[in-house]
Amino acid sequence: MTKPIDLLQGTLDMLILKAVSLGPLHGYGVLLRIQQISRDRLEIQQGSLYPALYRLEHQGWIVSEWGESENKRRAKYYRLTAAGKRRFQAETEKWNRMADVIAGILSTTPEEV
Amino acid sequence: MTQWSRLHSWQQTILRRSRMESEMDAELRFHVEARADDLVRGGVTRQEALRRARLEFRGIESAKEECREARGVGFIETLLQDIRFASRILRKSPGFTTLAVLTLAVGIGASAAVFSLVNAILLRPLPYPNSGRIVLPELVAPAGVNLGSEYMPWGQLQFRALTRDAHPFQAVSAFQNDSFNLTGAGEPASLDGFRASQEFFPSLGIVPALGRAFTAEEDQPGHEYEVILSDRLWRERFAADRNVLGRSVELNGSAYTVEGVMPAGFAFPRAEDMPSSFNFPAEPQLWVPLAIPAEPKPGPSELAVIGRLKPGVTVQQAQAAMDLITRHAEEQDHRWTGWFTMRVVPLKRQVVGDTRRPLQLMLGAVCIVLLIACSNVANLLLTRSLARRREFTVRTALGAGRARLIRQLLTESLLIAVAAGAMGILIANAGIYFVKTLGPSSIPRLREVTLDLPVLAFALGISLATGILFGLVPAIAAARENLVDSLKEGSQKSGGSRMSPRLRNALLVSQVALALVLVVSAGLLTRTFFQLLGADGGFNAERVLTFQLPLPSVKYAEQNRIVTLFGNVLERLRAIPGVQFAGIGETVPLGGEGESTVIRMPDHPAASQKELPFANFTVISPGYFPAIGTPLLRGRDFQETDTSDSMPVAIVNATMEKKFWAREGALGKQVGPGSTRYPLVTIVGVVPDVKHTSLREETAPEMYVLYNQNPWPSMLDMRVALRTKADPAGMTESVREAVHAIDPDLPLARVATLTTLVNDSMSQPRFSVFLLGAFGVLALLLASIGMYGVISYSVLQRTQEIGIRMALGAQRRSVFGMVLGQGARLAGLGIAIGLIAALGGTRLMASFLFGVRPTDPLTFAGVSLLLLGIALLACYLPARRAMRVDPMVALKYE
Fold first, then answer.
1. Of A8, B285, B629, B776, whose CB has the highest number of CB atoms within 10 Å?
2. For B172-230, how does the pLDDT look when each residue is reduced to its tens digit (9 = 90+)?
3. Domains along chain A?
4. Is B58 close to A60, i.e. CB distance below 8 A?
């Protein structure tokens, strides 16, 4: 397995929105879900996860409510709002376009210039 | 982000802060425990799992802090936290807090009090509707003609010429003061009042509270027997009776009908509202129509004019219109050339007039006090922040950002500033009360001074501004500290970072310099004051009683009756036991301006209209000079043998002799009023200059003529002076009886001893000296506190160094000298800078000074020595403490 790579600036919010879009999750669950989807190739700072969650909630893209966890503990669950869904779609499109452009630039050969 | 969610979040923060806080705790705890559960499943012990879970999280507290910020309401929350923390810190060092708050409160209080004066006098509009449109068209004397004042009174002809073409005015009115003897209603009283033309009240925009104002018909000769009362007169004399309207009262022997009562507080014009040369009464009590005839005859000029500009007309436009009128008048009649120049002055500028500069002086002085207070508090904070370096270092190490640290320190200083502001308002209130009670009556609008909203806003504003100003410097200095250095250094061994002592010294030096400027100014004013006390007014004020004897014009229409009356009154007065001399004159010393007129001298023919010589023209009786204590320099005094049948004689003052007959002397020369209708008189004596308005005035030429030889100006309003053998104040009753024995209807007005008049004329300089002196003492006190603080802190910091010096054999005396020397160097630098600033600054106050130059070396040297002495005194205690340092204790220290 390769060494996990650090997250690109600004992408954590997108990943959280994606993770939560698959179903309500508590904070630790978000962490696990991202690691699981990325097959442990991404390193997420636990300390920066919660500020991001609070920020997204403050912006109205996710909402939280208290519930019970799988091992019978009280936990705070986050789920996507309608606004969050639209935001996520917009962000995804933007990301894909950017990735295309960047990939195109990086794969350019001298002859093509 | 939606508006709603933001609002929701804010509301959550403010209302349920603690709940959110505990939810955040619970959430993070859940995270750590869930992670630990997973690790336990991997085969680690529970305790080890929890430890690792926490480690992986890397800083739960800073994550919490970020979460709080992420919620977007960190500001309010941190502010509350900062305030709580700051007040706890401040409570923990009550000595520091008290000193800082008191120092600043004094600065804020003093400046708020001065600002309330500035606001009420200079900034607030006058209490008339649209008062910006009220102007005084003033007549200006031709250039080069010294009337003793720039303004000339208006004549009836000139006023008629003005109203004929007065296009810029919505209303324009002439008025003149007069005394009214109210008789037939108890004790006869002399009331100050005005004769005003019909548009007087419309010009001001005020209507009577009761009844109505004059009509145009009532402003005609023969119909003017209508009177409008002031609210005060109505209450005092007419028991606030609403049925007073239509009642008949007797004024100067004629029956007048009461037509209206003005609203409370209305008393235009007060003496302070108009140029002092008009010599108007302090507060008018009634108004009657002026009734200028349609075709006025040439006569004495005694009118003042007020006008209200039409909406939209500027002062400049009005001035242009006035200039046009001037040109027309000069074209029609060449005798008016140069004598009909008008200047339109906004009423407010006239009212504020001479007060603007003293107020600016006060404002400057109080700014210096405030600056010293601020720099003092900044120094206190700086010193304290040095002592707290450990705390800051630890907090930085725990993750506090520099901005956060600065904010915390700023919160502390703002808290001090706000507390000081609250206390300052109390001080300002006391100051305002003090100024209103003791301030000289010549300050205009003083009764309008209050602690109102703008003043409160001002106090709040300077509190916050000073809080930020004096808080920011130490805060930035503290945040600049190098973390590692200060941890390594320990707390107090070295003298703080290299920048801080320099900053503190700079603050201290500027304090000393500012204090020097202020105290030098106060010193110059004090010397001026004593120079004035010693100034020669040309009279002797001891044991002199003066009063005004206004005569009813109806009863005393003929000159002969007046002369006979005065002769009888003087005879009666001189018969009173205890009266040494008695005299009558148009003015008494410091009793106000008298008449001034063009004069003619056969040996000084005037070259042109514009170079006409002027002199004060004062009618007196024999005995006047002995009564006011004016000695004769040359020649002889007026005598009882000078009568209407003998040669007409005059006495001139020294200025007049010097101006016109410097070489040959004035005795025997001929002089007379400008108009050839009056005969020339022969000068028989010369007296010293007698001051009329203040001891510092530049005396104009003055000539005295005899009341029984000269029929020119009206003698309806004369003053009497009596020199007594005992205390003059106790003689008022016998004097009143003596006058009433001749005419029981004659009122005595403005009864005052000459000493009182002298004191009154000194009230403005005395007040300035007192205020500036108080500010000077404050500045000295604050600067010495600052000096004490800086030196004693530096002694504390150098304890170890001093211990080593002493262990190595330094004498206690040399340690003492070292500390004193440090203080003296700083004070010396401050004094040097202050002297340079004062040399430049005091020139601005030249107009306040009398008999002392703005660069008076005595004051400069004295104040420098005083400041040095105080600085050394402030260093004395810390120096003694340094001398007593025990080397053993000092070395063990830390």
1. B776
2. 999 998 888 887 666 778 888 999 999 999 999 999 999 888 888 888 888 889 999 99
3. 5-112 (1.10.10.10)
4. no
